[in-house]
User: Fold this.
Amino acid sequence: MNMNTSNQRSNQNLKAAVLVAILALLGANVYQFVNNRSLQKDNMTKETEIVELDKAKAELEKQYQESVAELNTMKTDNEELNRSIEVQKEEIRLQKDKISLLLVDSKNLRKAKDEMANMKNKLNEYVTEINRLKNENQELSTSNVQLSADKEQLSKDVQTKEQEKRELENIKSTLISEKENISSEKEALSARVNKAGAINLQKIQVDGFQSRDGKKPREKSNASEIDFIQVCFKTTKNANADSGTETFYIRIINPIGETQTIESSGSGVIKNLATKETVKYSTIANVQYNNNEQEGCGKFSNPGGFQKGVYQVEVYNKGYKVGVGSLKLK
Assistant:
């Protein structure tokens, strides 16, 4: 009875051990199966990533080559534009190298594709900019052609104007020369007429006078007592002179050679036609001339007084000196 019970317990323990062993083996198989499936899945993922990377690299190379080719087709004979294209090609190459570094690791695949899209957008921007520059260059070229034509026409117009100007200057020079000749002839004729018509004086009297309020001026010879100098003269007969008012210009020269003048009192300047020089005069005397002997007088007052010495007097008519005189003051 006890042996049977012991045998039964032994069989049960054996069965339990066998069952545990079977379950352990089954668990190991399940783990191995799951692990193998995971490895297979990882391998498939790796293979997919490699394929995607290779595909992206190929696409990158194709995009780069197409971009370079497109930029090359846009070159012209404009050196500045071609230099700009070369700069843009270099920028694309640098961007391509940057993307190639990203494609070394599959984790950067998304970023690499974004950069490839940016590279394509950049190319489109470059193409748009190049086309704009080409259009501007074409417009400038057209404008330059027009400007060249305008410049050539302008040059012709300038040459024509210069020729006309030279002809006008020649005509003007001729007219000026003729005018100068006529003027010289007229001046010479006028000088001859004036000289012939100038009225000479046969007698000049120069005296100094003292003038006091309410009294008749008295002749004086002391410089300190004189208030004005009076120049009186008598004309000669001149049949060549016209009848009418004749002006005689009186020049009073002090002992140190200065012409006595006061503009506010009627002094001025005349031209000596004999010497072609301008001379100052002190005062004037107007005479009604009828081609015969006439008398006239002119006075000159000097608020600053007169100095001792000999005063020389010159009288002019029609630009010529017609008489001289003097006065000595003590």
The chain has a mean pLDDT of 83.
